[in-house]
Specification:
24% strand, 4 helices, Nucleotidyltransferase, domain 5, alpha/beta
Length: 144
């Protein structure tokens, strides 16, 4: 039997306090939430991301790029682009960006619709936003 195996794509929702992390399945069809990293300094954040990339054999990373509703890039986009630059200096994996407008709002609606408590939503919202970023990317790339 021939084993079909692909390396994974990691999706990130980079914020000032947390980083939501999602991973594709090995075939690159679906995105699943993995964890929320509490930001504790750039080196520690990158160390944890490196551990995830090694453990799950991540070949590509997609990071949400926050845009204003009119499509322009705002101050938070500059923060994310700076993070991407530092990330690329440390890791070899290619990085793509994904327009993350309304992903947090959509994630909140999904969680409210699933009757998740406010306290629990706060704990998982960034992970859910990372899932939405990654799934949108996977869909666009034709992996589903």
């Amino acid at each position: 039997m021939i084993e079909v195996y692909k390396l994974r794509v990691m999706g990130l929702d980079v914020g000032t306090k947390t980083i939501g992390v999602a991973l594709s399945d090995p075939l690159g069809w679906t995105a699943q939430g993995l964890e929320v990293i509490r930001r504790r300094g750039l080196d520690r954040d990158l160390q944890r991301l490196g551990e995830i990339m090694e453990e799950y054999q991540v070949e590509r990373v997609v990071m949400g790029l926050p845009r204003n509703m009119n499509g322009t890039l705002g101050p938070q986009a500059d923060v994310v682009r700076q993070f991407i630059g530092t990330f690329q200096q440390r890791f070899d994996a290619p990085v793509d960006t994904w327009d993350e407008r309304l992903t947090t709002v959509a994630a909140e609606k999904v969680l409210v619709g699933a009757d998740v408590s406010r306290a629990k939503r706060k704990q998982v919202i960034d992970k859910m936003a990372a899932v939405m970023i990654l799934q949108g990317y996977l869909d666009r790339m034709g992996r589903v």
